[in-house]
Design brief:
The chain has a six-stranded antiparallel barrel with strand order 1-2-5-4-3-6. The chain has a domain of 75 residues: Thrombin, subunit H (Beta Barrel). Helix content is 69%, strand content 14%. The chain is an alpha+beta fold. The protein contains two helices and six strands.
Length: 273
């Protein structure tokens, strides 16, 4: 075989192989395209079904949206009506609140005025209470003074009664003394200056400057200047001279020239031994 024959043979072989490959490619491609077509057709049917379902859902959603929009418009209208009503009510309540504020302001001013009046009345009451207390104190003081005056008056009346009785007794005694002086032929001066006989008492207190107090007085017949004797347990202690007298007590001074012992309380005193 010549070179050209070999070349043609190789060329035919190559072309055969190429044709075989092309045939196989066309065959394979034809099968794949059909399967793809079927697959795509199935997908298209599915997509159409989904689209129909989506359209149905869209229509349903649109219907629901329209219904919801209508419902919302109704609710919005209702809310708008309520808002209008509430605004009207708010305006009324605002007006009522302003009226109440004015009323409250007036009542507050009245309350402040009443508090001021109450403070003034309280001050007046406190002043009246103080005046009443002062009047009560003055009344109590006057009553106490009246009681004291009454007590003094009663005491004075009692003293006057005693003095009247004493005067009557003294007048009776004076009449008796005059009768006795006439019988005995003595004067009242002699009787008055004489120390009464047979009277005894005791020393009740020893003071300073040789002064002592004894239990005998003018009711016992003692007078200023009378002298008395002092003893203790049959011991002679000295003499006393009366300096001052009262109805039941006398103050005497110890005569130094006749002192024979220390004179103490409860020592006996005699007008005569």
């Amino acid at each position: 075989m010549t070179l050209m024959g070999k070349i043609f043979t190789m060329l035919v072989l190559v072309l055969s192989v190429m044709f075989l490959g092309l045939s196989l490619t066309v065959f394979v491609t034809h099968r794949d395209w059909k399967a793809g077509y079927d697959e795509k057709k199935a997908e298209l049917d599915t997509a159409r079904t989904v689209l129909d379902n989506t359209r149905d859902l869209r229509n349903e959603a649109l219907n629901n949206l329209k219904f919801e929009q209508a419902a919302r418009r109704a609710v919005l209208a209702n809310l708008q009506t309520k808002v209008t009503t509430m605004e009207t009510d708010l305006a009324d309540r605002t007006q009522q609140f302003e009226s109440l504020q004015n009323t409250h302001r007036v009542e507050l001013e009245r309350a402040v005025q009443k508090l001021n009046d109450l403070d003034r009345v309280t001050q007046e009451v406190e002043l009246l209470r103080k005046q009443i207390m002062d009047a009560h104190l003055a009344r109590d003081k006057s009553f106490q003074g009246l009681v004291e005056v009454t007590d003094r008056l009663n005491e004075a009346q009692g003293l006057l009664s005693n003095l009247q009785e004493r005067r009557s007794q003294l007048l009776a005694d004076l009449s008796e003394y005059k009768r006795l002086t006439d019988v005995l032929n003595v004067t009242l001066a002699d009787i008055d200056t004489a120390v009464p006989k047979g009277i005894d008492g005791m020393v009740t207190k020893v003071g300073e400057r040789d002064l002592v107090e004894i239990s005998l007085g003018s009711d016992d017949g003692l007078r200023v200047g009378h002298e008395l004797h002092v003893t203790r347990d049959n011991s002679y202690l000295g003499k006393l001279r009366i300096q001052k007298t009262s109805p039941d007590r006398s103050v005497a001074v110890i005569l130094k020239d006749f002192r024979q012992g220390i004179i103490r309380t409860n020592d006996r005193v005699y007008t005569s031994l």
